[in-house]
Write a structure and sequence with these properties.
The chain is an alpha+beta fold and 221 residues long. Helix content is 19%, strand content 33%. The protein has five helices and eleven strands; from the N terminus they run βαββββαβββααβββα. The strands form two sheets. Strands 1, 2, 3, 6, 7, 10 and 11 form a seven-stranded antiparallel β-sheet that branches. The chain binds flavin-adenine dinucleotide.
Length: 221
């Protein structure tokens, strides 16, 4: 089985979680599920010696992460030149209130991907990647939305980052107070947080599509 087919990402010196290593997870399915649920990625790179971390939409297309934007974007231009990139996504699952200030925490699922990007230039592959981005925002949307024209395709830079070096880190559960604090008269526990859609605000007179009626960030089985 090759590295790209393996069900786990290799634990490299760069992706070995050092603090609370028990929360690390290198399962490909787990990393993919977090990437698929998250709407926003933070894309980090260094340009002219200055680190930047830029929020972006991302999508997973099989074993690759895809990003898109204007060909004039400094960020996409820098990444296209093959500089090392770090992409992070975070799903916030709750705040964790301990009896001591020290043990307050957050429940979360996060992923860090390391690699280098390459431009997708083939029109058919570009369309697939853009479809993946639209589907990532709203599953089923490519059935309805007009696809990109040739001019729109030209005006869009699309980059792919192979998912070859990645880690997940996950915290779940209650606060972990020190034994001597457990009898303190202080409320302790978790406040779960969840991304929930509110009522859509139509900009047209058409009925609501089913994928908005049932909108959820949790990927379908
Ligand atoms: C949720 C979300 C999703 C986005 N998705 C995309 C996407 O899919 N594709 C895309 O091209 N862009 C996306 N953007 C916008 C993106 O963050 C950049 O603003 C945009 O790509 C411009 O990049 P640039 O290389 O031209 O900016 P740069 O020229 O690199 O930016 C110059 C400076 O502008 C400031 N800046 C740039 N962007 C931001 C920002 N978002 N917030 C605060 N300061 C900023 C920083 O100081 C930066 O150093 C998204 C933004 C958000 C918040």
């Amino acid at each position: 089985m090759s590295a790209s087919e393996s069900t786990v990402f290799p634990r490299t010196p760069r992706t070995r979680v050092r603090r609370r290593g028990g929360r690390a997870n290198y399962e490909r399915d787990v990393v993919h599920a977090i990437l698929d649920e998250a709407l926003v990625a933070h894309v980090g790179f260094v340009a002219d010696g200055q680190p930047y971390v830029i929020p972006m939409l991302h999508a997973r297309a099989g074993g690759e992460l895809v990003l898109h934007g204007s060909p004039l974007s400094r960020m996409l231009g820098t990444l296209r030149d093959g500089v090392p990139v770090c992409v992070t996504v975070t799903l916030l699952d709750g705040v964790v209130l301990a009896r001591s200030a020290f043990h307050h925490s957050l429940n979360y699922r996060s992923v860090v991907v390391l690699g280098t990007a390459r431009a997708i230039t083939d029109d058919a592959r570009k369309r697939e990647a853009l479809d993946a981005l639209v589907e990532h925002v709203a599953r089923g949307r490519t059935r309805d939305a007009r696809g990109p024209s040739a001019a729109e395709l030209d005006a869009t830079e699309v980059l792919a980052i192979p998912l070859a070096e990645a880690s997940a880190k996950i915290r779940t559960g209650p606060p972990q107070d020190a034994a001597e604090d457990r009898d303190l008269p202080v409320w302790a526990g978790e406040l779960p947080l969840h991304l929930t859609p509110l009522a859509p605000r139509p900009a047209c007179d058409l009925p609501l599509p089913d994928y908005l009626e049932e909108y959820s960030r949790v990927p379908a089985e």
